[in-house]
Amino acid sequence: MYKKRVAEGVHDSLIKTRIIGYRREGHTDVRADHLSGYNQPEIIGDHIPDITSKKEGKFFVTEAETKETIGVEETAKQWQSFSMYTNGRDKIFHVVVPESCLKEAKKFAEKEGIRVDRWFYNPMY
Predict the structure, then answer these.
(1) 97, 119 in Cβ contact below 8 A?
(2) Residue 124 confidence (pLDDT)
(3) 43-63 pLDDT per residue, tens
(4) Higher pLDDT, 3 or 72
């Protein structure tokens, strides 16, 4: 149970940090799953993204993952759904992970044939 709570804490921290970054960059209509005080993102495919936002006519879909969720079948399904929904131009797919997991996450996306438009990492984890 403790490990699950720690993983959830890291996941939520990744989301909060990315939201701060998006707001600094001028994103609007920022929505977040799992966090109180935010409207929930709309369902894409069968999945709810961790964050959605808008900037300069573009729509951003962002997923946060931890070492516990990288490589998991459910993560692959989510990423595939979000990658297919986005197009890399006016709909953008981002993934944020702990720095310690960045290489593993990129390898996972490549192995699964998933396009990620931009990677973010948090050096604290």
Answers:
(1) yes
(2) 81
(3) 999 999 999 999 999 999 999
(4) 72
Indicate the residue type of 84: M
54 beta partners: 28, 59
Q: Three-state SS for 34?
A: coil
3-state SS class at 94 = strand
Tally of CB atoms within 10 A around 49: 26
- Count of CB atoms situated within 10 Å of the CB of 102: 18
Residue 24, C-beta contacts closer than 8 angstroms, at least 6 positions apart = none
Radius of gyration of the chain, Cα coordinates, nearest whole angstrom: 13
**DSSP element (H, E) containing 77:** helix 73-85
Distance in angstroms (rounded) separating the CA atoms of residues 11 and 8: 5
Find all residues with CB under 8 Å of 2, minimum gap 6, and list them.
none
Rounded percentage of the chain residues whose pLDDT exceeds 90:
89
Prediction pTM value: 0.92
Helix (H) or strand (E) holding 58: strand 58-64
